[in-house]
Amino acid sequence: MLIDITGLKPQEEGLVKDIHGGDSVVSRMQNMGIRIGKKIKKVSAHFCRGPQTVEIDNFQIALGYGMAKKIIVEVSR
């Protein structure tokens, strides 16, 4: 099933399948280590469209809600 990062539950993992956005968005994500084919884990989320904390390669990154909506992951539930 394909969903965006905001749809993941805390401690749920997925495989990055796509990043929606222009070249600058994709480049920024890649500089943070978020690339297609990488495993990503949602650590936590703040209430009501707040930052989403994810873990990738043993690093935790806080993403804004809008940026998190652009990362499409595949999960098996």
Please compute the radius of gyration using only Cα atoms. 11 Å
Give the distance, in angstroms, between the N- and C-terminal Cα atoms: 8 Å
Number of helices, counting only DSSP H or I runs of 4 residues or more: 2
Roughly how much helix do the residues carry, as a percent range? 10-25%
Helix and strand element order: EEHEEEHE
Secondary structure elements and their pairing?
Blueprint: E1 2-4, E2 13-19, H1 23-31, E3 39-45, E4 52-56, E5 59-63, H2 65-68, E6 71-74
Task: Write up what this structure looks like.
By secondary structure, the protein is an alpha+beta fold. Helix content is 17%, strand content 40%. It has helices at residues 23-31, 65-68, and strands at 2-4, 13-19, 39-45, 52-56, 59-63, 71-74. Strands 1-6-2-3-4-5 form a 6-stranded antiparallel β-sheet. The chain is globular and about 30 Å long. The model has no long low-confidence stretch (mean pLDDT 93).
Short account of what is shown:
This protein is an alpha+beta fold and 77 residues long. The protein is built from 2 helices and 6 strands.
What brief labels describe this structure?
SH3 type barrels, six-stranded antiparallel sheet, alpha+beta, 77 residues, 6 strands
